[in-house]
Amino acid sequence: MSADVKAKKTDEELARLAAGGDAAAFGEIYERYRRRVYAIALRMTCNAADAEDLTQDSFVSVLRWIGGFRGEASFASWLYRLAVNQVKMHFRRHKVRPEYQTGDGEIPEPESVITRHAGSEQVIDRLALEEAVQRIPKGSRAIFILHDVEGYEHKEVGRLMGCTEGTSKSQLHRARAGLRKLLAAQSPALQN
Predict the structure, then answer these.
(1) Per-residue pLDDT, 54
(2) What is the number of other CB atoms lying within 10 angstroms of the CB of residue 42?
(3) The three-state (H, E, C) secondary structure of the chain, written as one string
(4) Which ranges of the chain have pLDDT less than 50?
(5) I need a surface site. Which of 78, 79, 125, 135 has the fewest CB within 10 A?
(6) Domains of the chain, with CATH numbers?
(7) How many Å apart are CA 160 and CA 24, to the nearest integer?
(8) Which of 19, 144, 12 minimizes the C-alpha distance to 78?
C-alpha cells in the first residue's frame, strides 16, 4: 500500500483495519495522533516523562481496545477519552498531584517560556497562569484544558470526560473562578 493511499484513509477506516491486525494502519493512527495525545498527557500531568509513558500506554490501550470502537463518536473523541482515562488511572495508581518539581525540590521554568525579552511581564503572567492551573482540582483542570485550551465544545468535553454537558459547564465555571481567585491573590491589580 503506497503512502498516498494510506494518507487518504479516514480514521474510521484505519481503525477498522487496525482492529483486523493491520500494523500499517495502526502505525498511521499513531503518527496522526501521537503528538496530540502527548500534549493532553503533558498538560494534565505537567511532567514530560509521565506524558511520554502515558502516551505509550494510551496507544497500547488503543491496540487492545480498537476492536471496540463502534464509530458512534469520531475516532479522535474516542482516542482522547481513552488518553484522558489513562492519565486519570495514572493519578489514581500513584495518588500524586502533578507539579513542576526536580529531584532537589526546585521548581524549574517550562522550556517554552525561558527566553527573556522585552515582554518579560508576559512570561511572568504565563508562569503565574500555568502555576494557578496546576492548583485547581484535576477534574476541573481537565475540563478547563479541553474547553478553553484545546477548544472543544461542552458537548464534546462531556463525551471525552464521561460526564454531562451541564457538568462540563459547571466544572469549567469552577475552574475559571478558582483561577481568578488564585491569580488575584498573586496580583492585587486583578482583584478589581
Answers:
(1) 93
(2) 18
(3) CCHHHHHHCCHHHHHHHHHCCCHHHHHHHHHHHHHHHHHHHHHHHCCHHHHHHHHHHHHHHHHHHHHHCCCCCCHHHHHHHHHHHHHHHHHHHHCCCCCCCCCCCCCCCCHHHCCCCCCHHHHHHHHHHHHHHHHCCHHHHHHHHHHHHCCCCHHHHHHHHCCCHHHHHHHHHHHHHHHHHHHHHHCHHHHC
(4) 4-6, 96-98, 110-120, 190-192
(5) 135
(6) 9-101 (1.10.1740.10), 108-186 (1.10.10.10)
(7) 27
(8) 12
Looking from the CA of 2 toward its CB, the CA atoms found within 13 Å total 3
pTM: 0.51
65-93: string of b/e by CB count within 10 Å (b at 16+)? ebeebeeeeebeebbbebbbebbbebeee
Closest C-alpha among 95, 28, 87, 26 to residue 57 = 87
- The string of pLDDT tens digits covering residues 93-146 is 876 444 555 555 555 554 444 444 444 455 556 677 777 888 888 888 888 888
Residue that the C-alpha cell 484544558 belongs to: 145
Residue 139, C-alpha cell as written in the block: 477534574
Angle of helix 48-65 versus helix 23-45 axis, rounded to 10: 140
pLDDT at 56: 93
Name the CA radius of gyration of the chain, rounded. 19
